[in-house]
Amino acid sequence: MKIIFFYISLFTFITSAQAQETKTFKVIDSIQKNGLANSQDSLLFADAHYKIGEGYRYSILADSAYYHYHKAEQIYRKFNNKLKIAKTLYGIAVIQKDEKDFTGSEVTSVEAISLLNQLEKTNEVDKYKSFLFNNLGLVFDQLELYDESISYHKKALAIKRKLKGNTKATIDNSKNNLALSYKNSQQYKLALDFYGQILKNKNLVNERPDFYALVLDNYAHTLYLTQNEEQLPDLYLKALRICDSLNNSAASYNSIVINQHLAEYYHDKNVTDSALHYAYRAKDISEQYHNDDLLKSLLLLSKVEEGNTAAKYLKDYISLSDSLQKAERTIRNKFARIKYETNQIEQENIRIARERLWLLIISIILIVTSFLIYLVVTQRNKNKELKFIQQQQETNEEIYNLMLSQQDNIEEARTLEKKRVSQELHDGVLGRLFGTRLSLDSLNMGTSVEAINTRSQYINELKTIEEDIRKVSHELNTDFVSGSGFMDIIKTLIETQTKAYGFNYELNNKDVDWEEASNKTKIHIYRIIQESLQNIYKHANATLVKISFEVKNNVFCLTINDNGSGFDVNKAKKGIGLKNINSRVEEIKGELTIKSELNKGTTIKIKVKTD
After folding, report:
1. Which GO terms describe its molecular function (predicted)?
2. Relative to the CA of 450, which of 104, 135, 435, 518 has its CA 20 to 30 Å away?
């Protein structure tokens, strides 16, 4: 019964459009025969073609609709009636979108919007602008360019909210389209929010039951995609009951998707009988339209069915897909022939193409030129930066070499002084003590027991003194441990700066062999400590600084800790002090860690491989 009703409705639509077409051609012939074809008459012709195109569009007769829209467009362009041109282009854009000529639909929509932007703002101008943005949103949704789709749907919705009159229905349409784009882009939370806004209207089920069922199904399917299935399949079934209760083609068409969703749901739950029931029902209804919905139904059956039956439906799916693609190409070819049937339009298109080509060439030249300028400027800055870093490294090396040279001079002087003292002890005091011991040995010839004991005690004491002096002499003549010079430099730096800055320090060097470290590493360690102490003095208000050196698993570790006021690490990273420290750590291929809490102090840890 519903199928019969659908065909009756479609026949009524087509008959109405054909009657309007016949009537229009009679009027045109009458006017032309009587010589009344002035500008006003021409606009009447255009309006008649436009109305016929509208009728065929709603009757789903794309090629006939396109023909009459194009006829209307040609006449409107002669009189530069931009509003009516834009309205006609909107009808063409919708047809192109429905026939999957998405590029053509996009170009046509943009052209129509450009014409509307040249007109004074009126309610009708804004209304068609919102329709065109909505069409672009649907086009980009089909192309799976969801960010662009969402952007255009938002523009359409914003305009519709400002329109005068009763715009509730058209606003809901835009919300549904926007929610669909969010759903397709997997932004399910936003999709559910917009579907919820629409469904809040309790009267919607009475005012627009077919639309209510469509939104309810979309809402339910979004819940299914988010695996929130508490209300499923009840919402699907409710939407389907509403569609079944309505005797119109729109509700019948909407029920296809609902049946597909139910089949998908039950197939997922392994309820095979129910899945097959709704899958076949979707196929039976979609066969009336022979479009993508039938394609989806066949693919669904190939998944739900088994064995040869599944293979048959998959084969039917492939065959239908090829057939639809050929039909779409045929329609697009018809559009092309209609569009370019006059020389005037061809020349206009050539002119536009040339202008766009020149614009493209100029744009490319400007982009390439800008890019080359950017490269030159960037390279110069990099060269300056590298030169500065090289100079800085040379300066650091020179400073460190001077420091080492000064330390060597100090060490040499200390060594000479130790040798001098050693020689004095050995050649002077020790010689005299040795002579005294010999003298006492010679006097030891006395025969009395007391004399012998006394002399023996003095001799033993002198031997003890001799050994002590020999030991001191030997120690004085021994060099410092290798590498201790760098720690002396560090200690001098820390003592000098902490005294000047007015806080205490603790220095701990856990058996670090500085001979293994390169001069470059030592320079940067020296500078990092210097920079850190300066930062602590400027910002931390600390009273104690702890600095420690240690080696763990061939990794050298420097830790600097203060008990100051602390800071926000993320914000402070922009400071020049921390940038300098970070730059130096990168120079020696180290790892920098900074931890800080307000009123709890700051800890800087630097790790560098020793090999």
Report:
1. kinase activity
2. 435
Among all chains, which residue has been given the structure tokens 């090289």? 390
CB atoms within 10 A of CB 285: 23
Q: How far is CA 37 from CA 30, 40, 342, in A?
A: 10, 8, 20
Residue 208 in tokens: 């627009």
Query: DSSP code of 246?
Result: -
Contact in structure between 13 and 55 (CB atoms under 8 Å): yes
Dihedral pair phi/psi, residue 573, rounded to 5°: -60, -20
pLDDT in tens, 148-198: 999 999 999 999 999 998 889 999 999 999 999 999 999 999 999 999 999
Cα separation, 94 vs 88, whole angstroms: 10
Helix (H, G, I), strand (E, B) or coil at 341: coil
Question: What is the full DSSP assignment across 390-410?
Answer: HHHHHHHHHHHHHHHHHHHHH
CA torsion, ordered 382, 387, 393, 398, to nearest 10 deg: -170
DSSP state of 566: -
CB atoms within 10 A of CB 545: 26
- Integer Cα distance of 252 and 243 in angstroms: 6
Burial of 333 (0-12, 13-18, 19+ CB in 10 A): exposed
**pLDDT score, position 408:** 64
Summarize the confidence of residues 247-266 as an average pLDDT: 83
- The more confident residue out of 316 and 545 is 545
Model confidence at 362, pLDDT cuts 50, 70, 90, reads: very high
Q: Are 52 and 24 in contact (CB under 8 A)?
A: yes
Q: Which of the pair, 483 or 425, is modelled with greater confidence?
A: 425
Q: What is the DSSP letter of 514?
A: G
**In this structure, are residues 563 and 542 in contact, taking their beta carbons and an 8 Å threshold?**
yes
Q: In whole angstroms, what is the distance from residue 300 CA to residue 297 CA? A: 5
Q: Calculate Rg over the CA atoms of the chain.
A: 47
What pTM was computed for the model? Answer: 0.51
Residue showing tokens 């002035």: 38
Residue count of the chain: 611
Amino acid code (one letter) for 83:
L
- 3-state SS, 259-321, equals HHHHHHHHHHCCCHHHHHHHHHHHHHHHCCCCCHHHHHHHHHHHHHCCHHHHHHHHHHHHHHH
Phi first, then psi: what are they for 557, rounded to 5°? -125, 130
Q: How far is CA 519 from CA 204, 403, 524, 582, in A?
A: 81, 11, 9, 19
Longest pairwise C-alpha distance within the chain: 174
pLDDT tier at 345, thresholds 50, 70, 90: low
Handedness of CA 38, 42, 47, 49 (dihedral sign): positive
Confidence of residue 600 (pLDDT cuts 50, 70, 90): confident
pLDDT for 598 equals 85
Q: What is the pLDDT of residue 88?
A: 92
